[in-house]
Amino acid sequence: MTLILLIAIALSGNAQSKRVLIVSTNIDSVGSNASGTFLMEIAFPFKYFTDNGFEIDIITHKGGKAAIYGKVTDELSPISTSELFISKTTNTLSPDQVKAKEYGAIFYPGGHGQYFDVMYDERIAAIAATIYEKGGVIGTAGHGVASLVDVRLSNGKYLVENKKLTCFPLWAEKKFMNISVYGKLLPFDMQEVLTRRGANLTVCTPETRPNQEFTHIVDEKNRIVTGAFATSAKWVAEQVVILMRKDKKG
């Protein structure tokens, strides 16, 4: 093998390991309620990935402007008003513009929008499967886990089968989520579907919610990180980076 080829392979591997694909949505409402991707679930991971030297691309079903909603707090404002964040969320890539082999991880933030476009987009599912099967890491928080339910691997099996996961609990949907009319406007219950797909699912109860063993799950062997709530998003990003760097050292 020539030196030039060895260098090209090394550069290719490094490029893959330093890029993260974030999946957002074009759907900006559920019923009459504003929705999309929840701001804190995309902004905090976006900042963490970029602060750690990773290049970010954002993909949506149609490309163009991502639908992002949520209160801009003092902590979020410097991120959401940054030139890079505005550019990436305003000019998202369509699935046809994405080369899956270039990414070392894929991250799904939460919100309800992806229930109505991302989760039915076979192109995005194929991109996720390719990233994963090439050794990439998958991370997601809150409602973002719903985006995984129909992702299939090249062997035809569901991605989530026999994987350790958590997700936003059904009880919390029914108690807190007025956006979805407490679950009534959602096309499916992800907790039920993930279980049916064979996921090794851990879901917190109201009593166990304060215990992160029930809300923050790292399946290190299978390179999947899931968090149950929006507040888990930054933690998920941190764990994704740990797994990416561990894989690189290995």
Written overview of the protein:
This protein is an alpha/beta fold. It has a single domain (20-249), classed as Class I glutamine amidotransferase (GATase) domain (Rossmann fold), CATH 3.40.50. It is built from eight helices and twelve strands. It has helices spanning 3-17, 39-51, 77-80, 83-90, 122-133, 170-176, 190-196, 233-249; strands spanning 19-23, 29-30, 33-34, 37-38, 55-59, 68-69, 105-108, 137-141, 164-165, 200-201, 216-219, 224-227. Strands 5-1-7-8-12-11 form a six-stranded mixed beta sheet, with helices on both faces. Helix 5 (122-133) links the parallel strand 7 and strand 8. The longest helix has 17 residues, at 233-249. The protein is globular, with a radius of gyration of 17 Å. It starts with a helix and ends with a helix.
